[in-house]
Design brief:
With about 725 residues, the chain is mainly beta. It has three domains: about 5-170, Orthogonal Bundle (Arc Repressor Mutant, subunit A), CATH 1.10.10; about 175-445, Neuraminidase (6 Propeller); about 450-705, Neuraminidase (6 Propeller), CATH 2.120.10.30. About 10% of the residues lie in helices and about 45% in strands. It contains five helices and 57 strands. Helix 1 (about 35-45) packs across helix 3 (about 65-80) and helix 4 packs across helix 5.
Length: about 725
């Protein structure tokens, strides 16, 4: 006999346990699959204190995750429900134990035969049987049948998704989670990342940005001394610790605005003694990937660094024998950087990540002797946050989001199917594998970009758009009443429009367009953007009932619409313009341009010429006009962190002390005035993918992106072979 369809109701919410869909007053509420499953466990045990282990075993039965995933899901659920303490749906925390959801919770049992009837006839929902779970308030058992019908109709739409979900769960390796021991190595307040295991697995080096600090420093923890100890002592931006082949020395990068130093450090009594082995030019900023590795024979260091300031970083080989340097890879103009270099166990090959776009990376390989050009190993078309070699030298371990969540995958070097591991996380994963021990460590790199408004008159900060997703690239509409922005809150990056306060959201794009920054037409009824993977340019026009998307017959990057609404200007390897009504592209100037913006009067086109550079340029839109440099101290790699006003330009720059301390400055167009400080930036920005600053039409406020303070522990997995 078929069982009925059960729904859980608490307060104004209804949860469908089959489709994993939450409704508020009959309207579906967006939640990721994992957060919905976490809520379901709490709802099914309303009034009971569930331990963290109990919840994690129920939600991630086939996966290996850490408590950070659970804490993140609880935070998302609280923000989604937005209920007060003591109300149904309130989640109470019991420190050191777990969580409890406040009741009461109802169950409503609907006969299965009534579900298709509800889809066919929304006025024929049929009888409902209710069961009381706990003490109910007076009238709490009464529900309108029309509300239930709406819920069933919405549920029918997502049943197909649930079927896919069941199938995807079966794909996980059976029993994999039970064979691995996963334990935290660090439990520190702040952000811990760039984990690096010594070859024998007994020591772990990592970066730690302490709570309240901005600059990361280098720390180690040993199996024999579990209390972390600090290696670096000077105030600077540190990056990429890696061990020597014997595990007795530690190399890392120390970056200032003037240069980068490669430092080798070794224990000296209770301290660490440093030696600078190479000094490199001014660094780029904002790469959270590992940038350094040590060859198995101990003779070479591989470092990701630009040939010259502002150029895309390639992989350099630096000899520890004679100090010579050799550039092994160049990413080319269509890529942002080559990062995360890793020597193969035999030392003959280097693998690395080529950053093709903020949401697209691939693994490449190159022989150390330079006899062949780098070749792509993967063609996943997704994000890859980290990778490392397994000890056999035949397999790479890759952290990628190709299945939706970040997961570890085994990729044979000589080709063949990629196989999943039972280690997941909601966030990008950084990993390190011990070469002579069956040990793996990984660190989730928490990312949470939110959109803020800075009042330029009183330097006040107000958060406008915030979720646990990535909300970025905000742009004011011409009348200042709306904002277009990019967000992955739906599970994939799309353009959204809200009012100026961040409410009344409407999704503009869908599917696989992978939109870049949205720029408004002067009438505020159209948006132009490009697909950064294909460079195709699209025009989105607002119509009654939605947005119509039209692909134009041209390609370019960061398009903007002219002040008269007739032309679209776009950059890339050259500056072009395209008729809004479509037509062939016309060449304006043969120069590279990105992050385009028009002056308020439409007279000048502003842009940067290098994605990693610090200079902002402008071109007057008339024949024969020269290209003029306007600003030369933009934050490195933050190519769109600026906005043009009538009398000057606002931009983000590093303060004199270090790259990690930043501020917004104003550059007046009047040559008689100097640049002035506008406001301190509260925390370091992640430049790649944060999008442009946007000045309100009244020029009294600035839309920017800030990164929420994050934390995360480093986890140790063993035995891992």
């Amino acid at each position: 006999m078929l069982k009925g369809h059960r729904l859980y109701q608490f307060g104004e919410f209804t949860l469908d346990p089959v489709a994993r869909v939450l409704f508020r007053n009959g309207t579906p509420v967006h939640m990721t699959r994992r957060t919905a499953e976490t809520l379901l466990v709490l709802v099914e045990h309303a009034g009971q204190v569930l331990t963290k282990d109990e919840i994690m075993r129920a939600v991630w039965a086939d996966r290996v995750v850490d408590e950070a995933n659970l804490a993140q899901n609880i935070a998302v659920i609280r923000k989604t429900l937005n209920v007060g303490k003591g109300s149904p749906g309130w989640i109470e925390t019991f420190p050191g134990r777990g969580y409890r959801l406040e009741g009461p919770v109802l169950t409503e049992e609907v006969a299965p035969a009534l579900v298709p009837a509800a889809v066919a006839d929304p006025h024929n929902a049929g009888p409902v049987q209710r069961q009381d779970l706990g003490q109910l308030p007076a009238g709490g058992a009464r529900r309108r049948s029309t509300r239930l019908t709406t819920i069933l109709l919405s549920t029918a739409v997502v049943v197909g998704f649930f079927a896919w979900w069941l199938l995807s769960r079966r794909m996980a390796p059976p029993g994999a989670a039970e064979t691995l021991s996963v334990k935290p190595v660090t439990r520190l307040q702040g952000r811990e990342y760039h984990p690096a295991l010594s070859p024998d697995g007994s020591k772990l080096a990592f970066l730690w940005t302490e709570e309240g600090a901005q600059e990361p420093s280098v720390w180690i923890v040993q199996a024999s001394h579990p209390t972390p100890s600090r290696v670096s002592t000077r105030l600077a931006h540190y990056s990429s610790p890696c061990w020597s082949p014997q595990g007795h020395q530690l190399a890392y990068l120390r970056m200032t605005q003037q240069h980068s130093e490669i430092v080798i450090s070794e224990p000296w009594g209770d301290e660490w003694r440093e030696k600078i082995v190479a000094v490199l030019p001014s660094p780029n900023y904002g790469f959270d990937h590992r940038l350094l590795d040590w060859s198995p024979d101990g003779k070479l260091l591989a470092v990701s660094h630009p040939e010259s300031f502002g150029r895309p970083p390639g992989i350099w080989l630096i000899s520890l024998v004679d100090g010579s340097r050799r550039l092994l890879t160049r990413p080319g103009s269509e890529a942002t950087a080559d990062v995360d270099p890793r020597f193969s166990p035999d030392g003959s090959t280097i693998s690395f990540l080529r950053l093709l776009h903020r949401s697209l990376q691939e693994v490449f390989m190159a022989p150390v002797n330079g006899s062949e050009r780098p070749r792509p190993l993967t063609r996943l078309g997704k994000m890859i946050s980290s990778h490392d070699w397994l000890a056999d030298g035949k397999t790479l371990l890759i952290a990628s989001n190709q299945s939706g969540e970040y997961r570890l995958w085994r990729q044979p070097v000589q080709g063949g199917p990629i196989r999943p591991e039972a280690i997941y996380n909601e966030f990008p994963i950084q990993l390190s594998v011990a070469r002579r021990a069956s040990v793996l460590v990984y660190a989730p790199l928490h990312q949470d970009r939110n959109i803020w408004k800075l009042g330029l008159r009183d330097q006040s900060w107000r958060r406008v758009l915030a979720t646990t997703a990535q909300d970025a690239s905000p742009v004011f509409s011409p009348d200042g009443q709306r904002i277009v922005f990019r967000s992955d809150r739906s599970g994939e990056e799309q353009l959204w429009v809200s009012d100026a306060s961040g409410l009344n959201l409407v999704q503009v794009t869908s599917g696989n367009l992978a939109p870049s920054v949205g720029r408004w037409a002067p009438d505020g009824k159209s948006l132009v953007f490009n697909n950064p993977r294909t460079f195709d340019i699209f025009l989105a026009t607002e119509q009654q009932g939605g947005w119509r998307i039209r692909k134009l017959a041209a390609q370019g990057v960061h398009p903007v619409i002219s002040s008269d609404g007739k032309w679209i200007y776009a950059g890339g390897s050259q500056l072009i313009r395209i008729p809004v009504e479509d037509g062939p592209a016309q060449l304006i100037r043969s120069l590279r341009a990105e992050s385009l913006a028009l002056s308020p009067d439409g007279r000048f086109l502003y842009f940067v010429r290098e994605a990693n550079g610090t200079e902002i340029w402008r071109l007057e839109l008339k024949d024969g006009a020269p290209v003029e440099r306007v600003v030369d101290r933009l934050l490195p790699s933050c190519s769109s962190c600026w906005a043009v006003g009538r009398d000057g330009l606002y931009y983000l720059a590093a303060k004199p002390e270090t790259l990690d301390r930043q501020a917004i400055y104003f550059h007046p167009f009047s040559s008689s005035e100097k640049d002035r400080l506008v406001a301190e930036y509260p925390e370091p920005i992640w430049p790649h993918g944060s999008g442009p600053f946007s000045l309100s039409p009244s020029e009294d406020s600035l839309l920017v992106v800030r990164v929420a303070v994050s934390s995360g522990d480093i986890m140790r997995v063993e035995p891992f072979r």
